[in-house]
Design a protein that fits this description.
There is one protein chain. The protein is of the alpha+beta class and 493 residues long. The chain folds into 2 domains: 281 residues, Protocatechuate 4,5-dioxygenase, Chain B, CATH 3.40.830; 177 residues, 2-Layer Sandwich (Glycoprotein, Type 4 Pilin), CATH 3.30.700. The longest helix has 19 residues. The N and C termini lie far apart (74 Å).
Length: 493
């Protein structure tokens, strides 16, 4: 395998390696020699259907050999990989969601690895995809993988999509996973960059003493993590982290991968090592593991999304839950359990909703959320209670009023960024305006009910956000749109 040093691109947005010359050689000839030694020591490749891999990201002297196992397995799929998603943890800044830098290429001593800008543009429509400059300036976890990839793939180096993964809320994983899966096909692959256990006082993690058994104990801890990953269950992996407090720096990228992987994938641990074995000192030691995931036919194009329409039974269940919740809380009783509706699995998926109450045709309360933070059942129950008791525009609903209330529920899709206000469709889209640190939202039904066109809608949205009416025309204004499935009780009770 020989990767020629490609002619540098003329891109204006180049990410320059923060660790060339320290974590790996910055001289191309010397770097090729180092990489050649790694790949020369690998066994013959037996798999050509690797769709994802986990590789460590320490300096090459420590983890380069282990990483080469994963990289070689990915390269064995060529010419069937056109796009490679690199999921790396953030070592410098904390944030929610994921960050993708505004780069056209990542430059290493072996040349430029070109970024798939079309895919990046599509991913930015997801509200949990950000661009956080500090997350990319000094991050080594994605950069360290690229020379390995360039050497292994050579002239067939695929386009890359480097993503730095922050910390997630429970409901964030399916949203981000679906956004990624929508951009993936049979020609895609995923590489997660992660070291495993960071042991010793330098890392604040000493679950067992440093003695003659340390190497074996580290191996056992690594095997527990590997088994959790091989289950292909994010919950199992998170249970391992909770039980052991294992210091796996790429835990969030691994959890995201497990959310994405098809349940039919096969998992293989190819190699494991520790820095303690290299230095012959386990006082402080990092574990490195190579894991691959295989699947005939590549990534599945289907993905699970909570944005599909609810059926009649599911709508009736949510309306009943909202009404029984309001009946309970207005009488100072505990809200009903959602377990009654768990036979409808669609309602246990994270999704957001608004609950609107009217009385004799007049608004009596309306509370909801835009971004999914919890299962839909819990979301509707919470907002039903808040619409009845905690809408500051109205006095709390009394027990005597409940029978006169009419309940409407709007179940929302995940908001997506649009490039221009001209992409907003009245009657279909709900709209979120973000500008100068202020924001406001209208549900899809608001503009048609008021008879507004797009510009009138945005003017009123600016006012609602506490801004001057025409601030929506500002260059800093951002627009997100979403759709809603709206359903209501057949008649007042």
């Amino acid at each position: 395998m020989d990767a020629s040093n490609k002619t540098p691109t003329s891109f204006s947005a180049i990410h320059h390696s923060p660790v060339a010359g320290s974590w790996y050689p910055d001289d191309p000839h010397e770097l090729r020699q180092v990489l050649a030694s790694f790949f020369a020591h690998l066994p013959a490749q037996k798999t050509t259907n690797t769709i994802a891999a986990i590789a460590p990201h320490a300096g090459y002297v420590y983890s380069g050999q282990t990483a080469a196992f994963s990289i070689a397995a990915l390269a064995a799929r060529q010419p069937n990989i056109d796009r490679l998603f690199i999921l790396a943890p953030s070592h410098s800044v904390g944030f929610r969601g994921v960050s993708i830098g505004n780069f056209d290429a990542y430059r290493t001593p072996l040349g430029d690895a070109v970024v798939d800008k079309k895919v990046v543009e599509q991913l930015r429509k997801c509200p949990l995809v950000q661009e956080i400059r500090q997350a990319h300036e000094h991050e080594h976890a994605d950069d360290i993988q690229i020379p390995l990839l360039q050497y292994a793939f050579g002239e067939r180096m695929p386009l890359i999509v480097p993503i730095v993964v922050g910390t997630q809320h429970e409901s964030d994983y399916p949203i981000i996973a679906n956004a990624l899966l929508e951009q993936m096909g049979a020609d895609s692959a995923v590489l997660v960059s992660s070291d495993f256990t960071h042991y010793g006082p330098n890392y604040g993690y000493v679950p067992f003493p440093n003695n003659g058994d340390t190497a074996d104990n580290l191996k056992k801890l690594s095997q527990e993590a590997e088994q959790a990953i091989q289950s292909l269950s994010r919950k199992e992996f998170e249970n391992h982290l909770h039980k052991t407090e294992d210091t796996i720096c790429g835990a969030s990228p691994i959890a995201l991968l497990l959310e994405m992987l098809p349940r039919t994938a096969c998992t293989f641990v190819l190699h494991a090592d520790t820095s303690g074995a290299f230095t012959r000192n386990y006082h402080n030691s990092v574990t490195y593991v190579s894991i691959i995931f295989t699947q005939d036919g590549g990534w599945q194009t289907q993905h699970t999304t909570p944005d599909q329409s609810l059926g009649h039974e599911e709508q009736e269940a949510l309306l009943k839950l909202a009404r029984t919740t309001i009946e309970a809380v207005t009488n100072r009783k505990k809200p009903p359990s959602v377990e009654t509706y768990k036979h409808l699995p669609r309602l246990s998926m994270p999704q957001s909703a608004f609950v609107t109450l009217t009385e004799q045709g007049e608004l009596r309360g309306c509370i909801g959320s835009i971004f999914p933070e919890e299962p839909l059942l819990e979301n509707v129950r919470r907002h039903a209670e808040n619409a009845a008791l905690h809408d500051h525009r109205f006095t709390p609903v009394s027990p005597d009023e409940v029978a006169q209330l009419h309940i409407e529920i709007s179940v929302l899709t995940v908001p997506q960024r649009v490039s221009s206000w001209r992409d907003i469709h009245i009657g279909r889209d709900g709209v979120i305006l973000k500008c100068q640190g202020y924001s406001a939202v209208f549900l899809p039904q608001v503009a048609p009910e008021q008879g507004w066109d797009v510009e009138q809608t945005l003017m009123h949205l600016s006012i609602k956000a506490g801004l001057p009416p025409n601030n929506w025309k500002s260059e800093s204004a951002q627009f997100l749109t979403f759709q809603a499935q709206v359903f209501e009780e057949k008649e007042s009770r």
